[in-house]
Here is the input.
Amino acid sequence: MGAGKTAVGRRVATRLGRPFTDADRAIEERAGMPIPEIFSRRGELWFRRTEETVIRELLAGDPAVLALGGGALESARTRDLVGRTADVVWLRASIQVAWARVKDSDRPLASDPDRFARRAAAREENYRAVADLEVDADAPADEVAARVAAWVQRGAAEMSR
Here is the structure.
């Protein structure tokens, strides 16, 4: 949360000429309500189960850039699926930068800085387990997107040889 997944993902998709999807927006569309309302009305468990289903469906489609929610990889099934079927980039933002980006938002899991930091630290192992590339996401979104797009393009060029 606060790493810039949506901002960077959109820019990477544009650079690569691929569609972009934010998994959280897809979940909101399916539920017919924003995430804070999903959490308050249906709970985090419902959200996480729906998230697994939506991600599975999105990964079954044509190549695209997909931004996963910060907690998506807490699911072992989602980690396994993503690790097997996608090139995974971990946008690693410092806690200070990530908190500054989300502290004034309506995100249900960004209400307390200490809890936010503990949650981020607890998620790192899952991110590291599936990441094919780790990128410092404290930089401006355009710089981060340029690094990610270049990495994807290098991989595509190597595969076509």
Q: What stands out?
A: DSSP finds eight helices and four strands in the chain. The two ends are 37 Å apart (CA to CA).
